[in-house]
């Protein structure tokens, strides 16, 4: 596998500040921003040129009202269900129980189409079916179960696909995405082990206990986070996964320093947000690698100073050319492959930090050189969910978006109606879109 770039420098302006700034401090950094366009239609052939397209029904932003479902009874709602691997999602009427103690019911307004869902659909991640997929979404709190105090009815919320108990060693140390407090129940059921959805009287599972490809979601209350009401629904949805994971990987996990050099392998939704995070932190040289030219064009929009098509260039050779023969200070694998894991380790300079961001197949194994790690004092780490704290960082990311420090308009290259969900996955897996969002 080969990859590479252009010449050092570029137009990225260092954001200033100190290495390892927390998100709250980043708000005051004043990073350079490149304004993005409106929501767009599918990419035309040959590049990233965009034509603006209105959301369904002329609705936009936080004013999206949602398409009302047909009347089917008080406990009925539609959801996209995976009934068998390697088959399209089916939009079915499901019976939904109301929230029990510590749970909420949320009316979903927008949901992102993500590769993590695709890994379940194609069997990479074997999980019990039938299951409602979806984990990157936002909506309005419609009902509270007994004892819920973190949100109220009418709040605008973003879903977190990781619950947190608040008491285990990881929650107590602020690493809530590693919570082990609920490991005694399956991650596709509620904390009491039961299901809130049924089809013909039989339980239906929910991806990550939420399953957001549905008109309404009942889930644990700690898996929703209140955010500002002027945040567009489409933006709120993608903050819940791709934005948090990518920006968090660069700023929260790796603590990218101002003036540093960065390699990002893979320019999908997560990789583009790693690029944004590196730019926000003030990285001087940001090298983006991918196999598709249209994705590399996206990467330049989001702050990459150099791009490399891995089909045509030798990545390591170009990285060496751009860094005086040393390698980069930080390298991020946003794909989750065996070859790309080796690549990012080889690409970092002595003392550099290689970060695995993309989630690999459960069976993946990478032949990393221990001697290179030792003699070069290289670091290799993994980050899950960008090592963020959803209860804190969702609101900060929302502020960064509304203050134009990060560009989420340009990230959303297509919106879909609910019944277009399978077309959304077709475009996602073809590489034709940066991020697609379903609007309810």
Secondary structure layout:
Blueprint: H1 23-26, E1 76-82, E2 90-96, E3 103-113, H2 115-121, E4 131-132, E5 137-144, E6 156-159, H3 169-172, E7 197-199, E8 202-206, E9 216-220, E10 224-226, H4 233-253, E11 261-265, H5 269-281, E12 285-290, H6 293-301, E13 306-309, H7 315-322, E14 328-333, H8 338-347, E15 348-356, H9 370-375, E16 379-382, H10 390-402, E17 414-416, H11 421-430, E18 436-439
Parallel strand pairs: 4-8, 11-12, 11-14, 12-13, 14-15, 15-16, 17-18
Antiparallel strand pairs: 1-2, 1-4, 2-7, 3-5, 3-9, 3-18, 5-6, 6-10, 7-8
Helix pairs in contact: 4-5, 4-10
Quick one: overall form? globular
Number of alpha- plus pi-helical segments: 11
Rounded to the nearest angstrom, the radius of gyration is 21 Å
End-to-end distance, in Å?
A: 40 Å
- Strand share of the residues? 15-25%
Domain count, please report it. 2
User: Could you describe the largest sheet, including whether it forms a barrel?
Assistant: 7 strands, mixed
Counting helices, strands and paired strands, the structural category is: alpha/beta
* pLDDT averaged residue by residue: 85
Please report the first level of CATH classification, the CATH class of the largest domain.
Answer: Alpha Beta
Assembly classification: single chain
Order of secondary-structure elements: HEEEHEEEHEEEEHEHEHEHEHEHEHEHE
Percent of residues in helices comes to 10-25%
Low-confidence stretches: 1-74
